[in-house]
Amino acid sequence: MLKKGEKNKNALIPGVESYREGTGEFSLLGSVSLLSLSPGLEDMARLLAAYLTREGVTPVVGKGDHPGEGPAITLKIEGKAEEHEMGFPDESYHLEVQADRIALTAPHRAGLARAVQTLRQLAGTGTAIPAAEIGDRPRLPWRGMHLDVSRHFFSKEEVLRFIDTIALFRFNKFHFHLTDDQGWRPEIKKYPRLTEVGSRRSGTLIGHYSDKPHRFEDTPYGGFYTRRDMEEIVEFARVREIDIIPEIDMPGHMQAAISAYPELGCTGMTLEPRCTWGISQHILNPQETTLNFMRDVLDEIMDIFPYTFIHVGGDEAHKYEWEEQRRVQDRMAELGLESEEELQSWFISRMGEHVRRRDRRMIGWDEILEGGLADGAIVMSWRSEEGGIEAARLGAPVINCPCERTYFDYYQGPKEKEPLAIGGYLPLEKVYRFEPVPAEIPDSKKYLVMGSQGQLWSEYMETFDRVEYMAFPRALALAETLWCRPEEKDWEGFQDRLPRALSLLDRWGVNYHGREPRRG
Known about the structure:
The protein is α/β, with parallel strands linked by helices. It has helices spanning 42-54, 109-123, 156-168, 193-196, 227-239, 255-260, 288-304, 320-324, 326-335, 340-357, 386-393, 403-406, 428-432, 464-471, 474-483, 491-507, and strands at residues 18-27, 31-36, 58-63, 72-77, 93-97, 101-106, 128-136, 142-148, 173-177, 179-180, 183-184, 200-201, 204-206, 215-217, 221-222, 243-250, 309-313, 361-365, 378-381, 398-400, 410-411, 423-425, 449-454.
C-alpha cells in the first residue's frame, strides 16, 4: 500500500496492498487471448471476457497450458491457500501486467475473483493498462452489502445489477432481506399463499412515517421471486464468488406471512401485509406447528441458497401479544421459561438447531442476545457496537454493523437538499473512518469480528435508481475500510482516487450521490 500523501497512480478502490510500476503498457485495442490455465475456471474466464468486451476489447476465450502468440490474459490457481481461523477462503491474489501479458493468479478461486474485479477497474480507465505488479489480500473476511426487497420490491435484473456493482469493489457478501411486514418475496412451493397473499399489499404510505395523519397511495403494490429467479441470482453470484445470505426475519416482522396463514399468528385476526412503515405488533405464535412451518420454509430457502450462512432476523420482535395471550403464557410455563425474552431465545434456538442439522450457520440481529444466545449463533450487531462486544465476550462470532456507521438509508447530505430518507446523518467521511473491530474487544478475541456490511433499508427507496443513489459512493468508503488495514487507510488519498471510481460508475450507468442528473 502506498504511504500516506504519496500519489496513488493506480487509483484503485479499495486500495491494494502492494503496487509496483513496470515498463510499458498492455493495449486494450484489438484481439486478446483469454486463457484459463487451471481446471474449472472457464466460467470466470467468460465473465472476464464479458467485462472486457464492454470496454471495447475483443477477447478470444480458450484454455491450455500456456498462451500462444500475441497479447494474452491468463487465469491460474497457483500457490498454497492460507487457512483462515474462521474457515473463510483465502482471497489473496497476484496480478501482473506486462506489455503483452496479463497474469492473474491466486491460491483459491475466491482470490482469483477479486483479481478479475481489480483488472476490471484497471481496464475501465482507457485504451491501455500501465505495466505493474499487484499483490493484494483483504483485512477482513466479511465485506458485505444488504438490500431490503420487502418494503420496496426490486426486480431480478436489478438485484443482479446490484451484485455486479458491489463485486467491482471486492465485496464478497450480499445480504438478501427477503421478508418483512410489508411483503413476502421468495416463492415457497409448500406454502403458495406466502406469495399469493403475502407478496402484495393494498397500498403504500406517502411521505414520512412521522408525518400525521398518514396518507396512502391506494395502488396495490407487490412482487416476488420465483424459485427459478432465485436460482439465477445464486448462479450469477457464484461466478463472482459472492455469498448470498438470505434472511427470513422471525418471530417478529412477520405480518405478511401471518396475512397468508393466520394460524401462524397469536390472535387469529385476518390481516393483510402492512401498508405503512414502522414495526408491526403482530408476532408468530410459539406453538410446534408454527416452528414446523418455519422449518419447512428454511428448508426450501437452504435448498435454493447453498451457502454456509442463513439469517433468521430476531430483531424488533414486539412481545405484546405474547404477554396478553393465555396460550402463549401456558406455553412458557410448559417450557419452564420466565420471560418473553427467554421465549424468543428458545424460538431462535430451535431454528438454530434446524439450521445446524443442515450444516449451516445461523445469523441473527443483536436482539438474539436477549434471553440467552443460541448455541453456534453469529451476532449481527446493529443498534450499537455493544451487542458485538457482548457477543465476542461470550465467544460468538460478530458482524459489526452499527446503524450510525453502516445504515445507508440515513441522509448523506443536508436534509433540506436530499431526497426523503428515514433520518439520521451518515456522510461519506464518517463511513470511511469507521473502525469495524471495536477497541473494547480483547486482542485474544478480535478474530471473532468477521467484518461488517452496509444496510439499505428500502422504506424510502421507491426505485432502484434511489437504491444506487443511497448506496454509492458510501459503499466505496466501506469497501476500503473493510479491505485495508487501519494503517493503510488514507482519507485524502481515497478522495484523490474517488473521481476515477465515480467515472467508472458513470460509464456503466450506475447512479450515485453527487452525480449529474440524468437527461431524458
